[in-house]
Amino acid sequence: MNVDFALFIPEFVMAGMALVVLTVDLFLPQDRKHWLPYIALVGILGTMGSVFTIAGKSEELYGGLFLVDNFAVFFKVFLLAVGAFMVLASAEYVKKNLTRPGEFYGILLFSILAMMTMTAAGELLTAYISLELFSFSLYILASYAIHRPKSVEAGLKYILVGAFSSAILLYGLSLIYGSLGTTTFSGIADALAGNDDIPVAFLAGLVLVVVGFGFKITAVPFHMWAPDVYEGAPTPVTAYLAVASKAVSFALLLRLFAMAFGPAMDEWRPIIAGLAAATIVLGNLVAMAQHNIKRMLAYSSIGQAGYLLMGIAALSPLASNGLLFHIVGYSAANFAAFACIIAYENLTGKEEISDYAGLSRRQPFMALVLSGALFSLAGLPVFAGFATKFYLFAAVGNEGLLWLVIVAVAGSLVSLYYYLMVIKQIYLGEPEEDEPLRLSVSTVGLLGALGAAVVIFGVYPGPLINLIEKATAVLPMPV
Amino acid sequence: MGMEWAWLLPAVCTGAFVVVAALGRWLPGRGSLLAIGAIGTAFVLFWFVMADVVGNGPGSFSRAWFDSGDLTVRLGMRVDKLAIVMLGLVSAVSLAVQVYSLRYMRGDPRFGWYFALHSLFAASMLALVLADNLLVFYITWELVGLGSYLLIGFWWERRSASEAAKKAFITTRIGDVALLIGILVLFKATGTFELSQIFAMAQAGEISQTTINLSTVLIFIGAAGKSAQFPFHVWLPDAMEGPTPVSALIHAATMVAAGVYLVARMAPLFVLAPGVLDLVAFIGLTTVFIGAALAMVQTDIKRILAYSTISQLGFMMLALGSLGFTAAIFHLLAHGFFKALLFLGAGSIIHAMHERQDIREMGGLRSRLPATWVAFVIAGLALAGIFPLSGFFSKDDVLFSVLDNRGVVWFAAGLIGSVLTALYVARLLYLVFLGEPRSQAAREAREAPLGMTLPVMALMAPAAGLGLLALAWGDYDGFGSFLVFLPFGSRPFEFHGAVFWPSLALAFSAFLMGLSMYRQTGGVAPALVRRRIPWLLTALDNKLYLDHVYQWTVDHVVLVGSRLVALFDRAVVNDAGVDATGRATRWSGLVLRYHETGLVSTYMLTIAVTAMVIVLIVITTG
Predict the structure, then answer these.
(1) Complex-level ipTM
(2) Domain tally for chain A?
């Protein structure tokens, strides 16, 4: 088999840079460790540059194991951008709260590498191995604050439930292989289309796969680990879990369902739609009862996962566009919110919602960005959340899932309540101290960039939607 | 070239508004210079646009704004001669007023915000003038109202100012609702907001007479609200609570004229509804009398001018109702300049009198405020319609169209209106400038600084000489041929003996009579009037009781209705509907959160059980 290794350049670069960070760390004196995030950032940006060498290509490597197409390129660029923001957002936090920054950034880069291969996987086992590499990195990162019991608890719970789900997923994969005799996505689709009757073992396997992914994307009722882990993990890692982990899992899920399971759509649509509805309802309702802002955002991101699942349930060209669009909009807004929370934690060490009282008087810029991000998550106009939700919900409604759209709109309405509770604190609460909070220049830049993204995607989404349409065009859609 | 740039006029002012409102604090002069630069640019651009329109005829530009089903709403502008006249008036007066304000408002704590609002108002007013479809027109119409509201209540710490702002907004809103309904009636009948299409359909007889009558009445009600016509005029005198330059710009020259402009713009529709034109003329004439009569008894200098504005707007409506569209617009233009001049002069007087506005405390200011005196004489005589000042020509034109299309009786009534005008102008001039000073402040009054007198002097030229525009000279055939309303042809200005002599003689003699009369009585109504018709004076002092009637209606009809609705809202909508739903939702959240036990074994059990249940369901059903 003749393999064009040039198509792996981005993965090579990323793996190399991860090793470079780990090695450099060995030789850096303690007072120079703060260089590490910038080395990692260079690695991420370099990888992003190298992705453009494969842009526009459409290739299958190793008989469909590894795919190079617009969909993969879109997500690679997007996830690398998320990674870059992640590094910027963590720099200060890591310096202040964590030991061993070298491994932190090294493992972070490995997790990005895993995400890159996840978006390119065209076969069940490749997908599974990438997913495991990704999960392992996250297990370590979640428990990185080893001196804090909550973080250790988070890591332990995460790895236990994760291993359990992983086993279920693997069992599901084996059932699919057993019933259809193939593991490539296109092979599965062909086998399903060729069969008049869909084998029962395949259906059981499909359900188990859904359960396994349900854990990753925090679909109800496989979500229960999420609030504990989100609250306990170091805050930048929480942001990473809420944004990157969800985005990449949905990328893989969308590719899997579109390319492999499409012919069996009638069988799985009710399952996914039901999970989506349960996720929206429970995530949003319970978010109202939270006092810790990280935990509140954990539940809110469970609700958001419900909206994204709607895109899988509908599975049409429009719905896929809507799914990608919402992933981008949600990521920008959620990351903006988390960047504020990280910065606030760095300055005050506090993370209760009531601690945000009077933030507008102490740090008006951060108050503005945080409020904008929360409004976007709630789906109010001008902000990205409105445009993305509107697009997604309209596409899902077009596919005859109107009841699901009604549930989602009701969920959004509820979500406005708990987002507004935070904004109320920010603007109307009485601060305990009056002293202004000073942000570092890099934080101001980070918040400004994310805040601007939240507005720009909401006001002028045209160019982004063009890119998304190119990305989803490679996915075969059930008719 | 130039016409395509017309959109820049409102655009630069919008830009100035945004920048001054957001960053004014950090700009030189707190943004005032930027605002003035913007309106100055607009004024310069106006000349290019005008040159283009005069040379190449009217043009319109539009692009699709949004689609909704079959309806495409276009965002566009129409630059024709009517728009040009208004553009010139608005940009020139705005410029003069803003320059004047630079000195007048100095030291105000919200100096920058004042100029931001002026930019907002100028942008809205310029956009309104250019609007080529009713939707855009309505939006800018409301924006103009917003600007007026914010500027009347500019000193909102003063209760009377915020009350006046509310009164102005609510009163004009009543008219606006009618206007909106009128626009929607037209839209229902034609399926478009585009003026040109509506007019074409109306002329082709595709719109029923009932629709035309109904929509024009509703549009006229909107116009009457904005242009302070009886019975909506009550807000304008109160609007004098705003800074005096604001009164000059918005409540004399531009916004209040928007109603007149609206009717003129809709002329092709109004001529198809003769009955409605009768109404317009009748309301106009009524307003002429009420405004003039009330101006006669006021003692606050700004309120006198406000009632005079009401009366003059009545003249414009009277002209519109008498098919004198060109005459109405010409009077609008002339009035815009001389009334703005009067208001700016009044501003200088109030400034010199240390914020005293009562004319009974003034007197003898002629020698102390010479520049203002000259301005007042020019503008006052123009207002009284004395040859050869601008007001003479425009009023003559108005009266001629009344005589021509309405007959002698209406004409005579119009003449009486102009006699009343001359009388209150005489009273105003006498009490303020002649005689002896009647207070310490008047004795110590000083002429306003140059920053204020310069714009005043600049406005003197159009106030005095605008009449020239009526006449033909060179290639120019006079205003009657410049601004032509279909289906009427051009009508050059002529001196009609039947109009010229009676109107000039009456106005002039009334003015002289007024001067000598008020010299004898010291400014109050003559004893004869006081003895014979005391009830009339009492009624006038109480502003014809209209405010009382409105207040009673609000208290006993509107508020009672509101309370009933509020009760329903409280008990049914709020308590049973909204609150109960909200409480139930919150409660479910509080209960549901207990599913989160913190135990990993529970989490795994849930996953396993759910997985098995779904598999079972799928296998049994599938």
Answers:
(1) 0.89
(2) 1
